[in-house]
Amino acid sequence: MADLAVKTPQHSRTHEIVKTESDIENARSSLKNIRTPKRIRRLYAMTEIRRMACRGAGHNEIMSRLGLPPRTYYRYLALAFERNGLLLLEQDKDAMIFELSVFKDRLLAA
């Protein structure tokens, strides 16, 4: 008997575009199986918490989707708020320096 070889088309590995919410969930579940450093997992979780909170998701929904216990979730949430506050302060400092330089230029011109 002759062996029948089935040829499959060769696909080049390109970046696949995630289009649906189920694709995103599948990607998240596959990421959970990969061993990643703790810091990267924490940054990812904090980013997802911010993103989902901005979309209006509730605390319980975010915890269940990310698979975080309540204590960890609220700790990450507090860290996210703290980082956002620091970023806002930094932006306020830059804006204040700009406003002072404009004020100084106007005062010197007068």
Describe the fold and architecture.
This protein has 110 residues and is mostly helical. The protein has a domain at 23-84. The chain has four helices and no strands. It has helices at 21-33, 38-54, 59-66, 70-109. The longest helix has 40 residues, at 70-109.
Largest sheet: none
Shape: elongated
SS class:
mainly alpha
Helix content: over 70%
Q: Give the CA-CA distance, first to last residue.
A: 100 Å
**Stretches where pLDDT falls below 50 for ≥5 residues?**
11-18
In terms of quaternary structure, what is this?
A: single chain
Mean pLDDT: 76
Secondary-structure element sequence?
HHHH
Tell me the Rg in angstroms: 24 Å
Strand content: under 5%
Structure annotation, total helices = 4
What's the β-strand tally? 0
Name some characteristics of this structure.
elongated; 110 residues; 4 helices; 71% helix; 0% strand; mainly alpha
Detail the topology: elements first, then pairings.
Blueprint: H1 21-33, H2 38-54, H3 59-66, H4 70-109
Helix pairs in contact: 2-4
